[in-house]
Amino acid sequence: MPKIRWTMIFLCFLANVINFIDRANLAIAAPYISHDLDLGPAAMGLILSAFFWTYALLQMPAGWFIDKVGVRVSLALAVGWWSVFTVLSGAARGVGQLTGARLMLGVGEAAAIPSFAKVAFNWFPRRERGFACSIFDSGSRVGSALSLPLVAWLISAVGWRGSFYITGAIGIVWAALWWFIYRDPEQYRAIAPQQVDALLAERSPQLQAESEARISWGDLFRYRTIWGIMIGLFCLNFAIYFFITWFPSYLLQSRGFSLSTLGTLGMLPALMAIPGGWLGGWLSDSLIRRGWSSTAARKTCLVAGMLMSSSITLSAFVESTGACLALFALAYASLSFAGANVWTLPGELAPTPKHVASIGGIQNFAGNLAGIVTTTFTGFMLAITKGSFVIPLVVAGVLCVVGALSYLFIVGRIEPLPAPQGRGGVPLGKPLAQ
Known about the structure:
Growth Hormone, Chain: A, mainly alpha, 2 domains
């Protein structure tokens, strides 16, 4: 049983690595695509942005779908879907085909993170769920770090079209493996009856709520805690998306980095973020094992991580390049420290097991709106201030503090939200206290 559950979460980690490689390969191949297809900057901008719209807008429907069909179906379908459209990106002959492929890529990837959170809920008890979430969450950092050297090497070896074919084929193989390997733990009762029974016993309040009360997907928005986690992840992702989108430009333009330096020293914050996430998940689990409540353990790590990540603002004001990189590394590691705990929340807040992925999708919808806002806001500020990153970095730091306050004061107790009583849903006013 222990080996099986870690196999399941490791497969989620690999899927997240593939997720971010497939997400980044277009940006790396963009110069070659522009040359071969004779595309201007405006056309490439349209193609690059297409993914984010479907990815963000379909988070909530994806969460509902995952809870309906289960993670074996949802992840096999999601990874297979986006991998097929990664392959089709390599076969594209113009703006329309590339844009369509990227829109469909976002459709598939929308189901990824909420599915991972549901796998952690299905297979791990509360005292181990933080570290499990930190493992699959770190796949995004590993995928981002691997994408540049891997895709660049593939382009040099087989061309930009071949790079899409190969990375897409890897995802198709993963989807097939997942379909044949994954089962919910209830189907392993004959192998490990005591462990399965212990997992189900821990979920007994949620299972009882599922049988006694009815709560619709829309009713989730009437809980104050749901709005709190949406605000928190929006603030966290505002800073993370700066690293994913504008951070290389900052180092090149404001700190005078060369391309070679960018590829070495510039990777330090992302590399520090990987153990930072593992530490955040391990620490909150450790606190629970020592007798802390889930509320105290998760909120301590969420609030501390968000407050430490506000150091991103200081990086704009130090003169030393070394100090600047150290502050960025602290900020990114702190964001990952908090982020590992973010993905324990859907499982611990869900009023019933059928709402875990739905809450994950709602939370991730708000988080990915930050991706659109960060890229757009930073671009406008650079145009207005003639290339200064000070305002975007100050805003990112301020939002980290806002996120900490949201987790501390708006989010209620980290426990299953009280299931509604009465006909047709939640009595007005009751959930807003939680």
